[in-house]
Design a protein that fits this description.
This protein is an all-alpha fold. It has 3 helices and no strands. It folds into 2 domains: 54 residues, no CATH class; 27 residues.
Length: 92
Amino acid sequence: MEVELTPDQKAFVREAIATGRPRREEDAVSEALGLWEDRERRRLEILAAVDRAEESLARGEGRRVTTADEAKQLADDVRRRGMALLNENPKS
């Protein structure tokens, strides 16, 4: 596969190579693609989580948060549950 970079992209890659990271043009492209793959994977995970949340709300599950006090209470509850999980499963 051949890809044509813009002049700015070429200059960016050349500057990176000149400063020692990456060593070759191919390394720069490989790293860029790896970062793109990671971002896309995270995006798909977020979309799946949103779908699950919407399905949960459609089933009548969940909790309505409409005021600042309700948002603070929810945040406190999440923090408390998270700390409880950490305390149950401490790292060795």
